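Human: We require from you a standard protein entry with sequence in single-letter code and fold as tokens, and nothing else.

Assistant:
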Amino acid sequence: GSGLVGSEMCIRDRLITVKRLYKDSDYSDCIKAAEKLNGSEFDDEGQAITARCCIALSEKAMNSGDKAAAIKYAKQALELADKGIYKSREISVDATLKLSEIAGGK
């Protein structure tokens, strides 16, 4: 076997699920699944993937005319972009651009 105990396998399996949901563009479920990684050894991965999901959901909300949701997700992405070992300037910039786009009424 891999030498992992049950709880470690469970956490690893959760990360695999989160990654699959992200790849499948199932962003809402991906965020819910990533929440289960909070406080685990994969906390940073969960936050990084959640930030990317939020950017995608913000874009989706903008395209459907839901400015409130677009703002909510962009702000969440911005908040998460600066956390953990996967801090991402790219996510910060994307989220900031989304927020200014929304404010500009585009």
Summary: The helical segments are 6-23, 27-35, 43-63, 67-81, 89-103. The chain has five helices and no strands. The mean pLDDT is 92. Residues 37 and 43 are 5 Å apart (CA to CA).
